[in-house]
Amino acid sequence: RYFSSIGNYLRAEILYRLDINPYLSARSVLEGLPADCDSKQSDILRMCHEVCWEVIGLKGSGKPYDPDQIYGDSGVFEGWLQCYMKPGMGNTIDDKGRTMWHRTKYGKGKVSRHKV
């Protein structure tokens, strides 16, 4: 229903970069994708590809997504993030208990279990 299964941090970063409301259904964003792929909706497909490869290509002493620093310093990954768990970003919990990070214009809720 909400761009799920790509991963919360990837979803947050992709939607943030394209300034897409995270509460829109995936269908409404992808519906009617033009064949020429020259619109905001088609950008989301390109961004899904690019953001995933950016993460894979991150260099550092730890694994890219390692919030508990089990594998070492996650500073490179944290520096790459623009939205997910960043101070000043809005976040709310959806009906499945997932934290959704986004621009504050889509909601200003704060979740106490995340330190920002």
Short description:
The protein is mainly alpha-helical and 116 residues long.
Q: Main attributes?
A:
34% helix, 116 residues, 4 helices, mainly alpha, single chain, disordered C terminus
Outline the structure in words:
By secondary structure, the protein is mainly alpha-helical. Helix content is 34%, strand content 7%. The chain contains four helices and two strands; from the N terminus they run H-H-H-H-E-E. Strands 1-2 form a two-stranded antiparallel sheet. The two termini are 27 Å apart.
Q: What's the arrangement of secondary structure elements?
A:
Layout: H1 8-18, H2 26-30, H3 40-56, H4 75-80, E1 90-93, E2 99-102
Antiparallel strand pairs: 1-2
List how many beta strands DSSP finds: 2
Number of helices: 4
Q: Which class best fits the helix and strand makeup?
A: mainly alpha
- Give the oligomer, counting copies of the same chain as homo and different chains as hetero: single chain
| Average pLDDT score | 75
Q: What characteristic shape results from the CA principal axes?
A: globular
For the terminal residues, how far apart are their CA atoms? 27 Å
Lateral arrangement of strands in the main beta sheet = 1-2
Order of helices and strands: HHHHEE
Largest sheet: 2 strands, antiparallel
**Poorly predicted regions:** 111-116
Which percent bin holds the helix content?
A: 25-40%
Report Rg. Answer: 15 Å
Quote the beta fraction.
Answer: 5-15%
